[in-house]
Hints:
With 368 residues, the protein is mostly beta strands. The chain contains 2 helices and 24 strands. The strands form 4 sheets. Strands 12, 13, 14, 15, 16, 17, 18, 19, 20, 21, 22, 23 and 24 form a 13-stranded antiparallel beta sheet that branches.
Amino acid sequence: MKRLLLWIAALFVMALLVALGASVVAGGPDSATVARPDRSQPDALTSDLQISKVRYGSGTIMPGTTVTYSVRITNAGPSLAHDVRVTDTLPALVNYQSCTASQGSCGPAGGNVVQWYAGEQNAGESNTLTIIVQVASGASGQIANKAEVRSADFDSNTANNVVWLTLTVTQPASPTPTSTPRAPKRAFFPILMKQFVGGTTPTIIFSDNFDDGLLHGWTRNNGNWYVVGGYMHGDYATGNAWNIKDVSGSNFTYEGDVNILSGTSVGLTFRSSSDGRSSYNVMVDAVANTFKIVKQPGNAVLVSYSSSISRNHWYNVKVVVSGTKIEGYLEGVKRLTVYDTNFSSGQFGVMLTSATGAFDNLEARTLP
């Protein structure tokens, strides 16, 4: 009789659990499992995730500009949101640089997508994702960016889960530099003519005054390069940029007229790799007020000469390169001499460092 009463009591408890809406799985007399609620349904946990996106900072956006995006997510509640993640699809004409998150982890997820795993978000809590990109050199017009937030829970308002941000990229203007009149093109400096008397006549490796409006045989590495007003114009926002000619030399003279339209420094590149990253460069620098020879990589200054360097002013610069010896001339006067063994030959070109510049009357000749 006692055993019968115990079984009746057990059956009563099981019936009571079923009546309360639980799902009982009998694994034996002493075990039972209750099913977890489906968070994707409105009768389970409910949150309202919201997302917004702005550009941090101001100013005109041009090719090469670094842009900082700020993405903000907020859980308006009423419940805790689980497994919150943001997918940010960057515009095609920007290059991802880095990201940081106030909570969780972030990083590139293939293509131009940045993924942010924010984890749990309490009701009323907000967190921020910062993304840094650089606008590609060929970008222009409007660039649109989409960001979307999702979680494992039911969202009471999905209309605020997606945000678009559209920015406008402006191509830089191409003003003709306000410059002092330049002297007629000189084949050689007088000091070099003395060296050539009685010797072999130097032959031209290449020359370009850009009067045809074309950039035949030039290959750029960073920046925008084009011909305007009878000279080559180069734009770049930060760092180094090169335009490299498809000819090489070992021992030569190389000269040209250069103009810093804005920014730090411009100059001529020689004995260079095809992208400029391994090269010598003779530069005028308006920030440091120096005429200098710089070796890449590393922006290593081999030798420099202090001189007042102005922007929007044409300077004639020249190098005489023979073996390990490099001499630099500014406005026809030798100011620099240095010996270096790194590069014995290479291509010719021009260079910008955090600058916009102009180049004209480029000419390279073999030494006699």
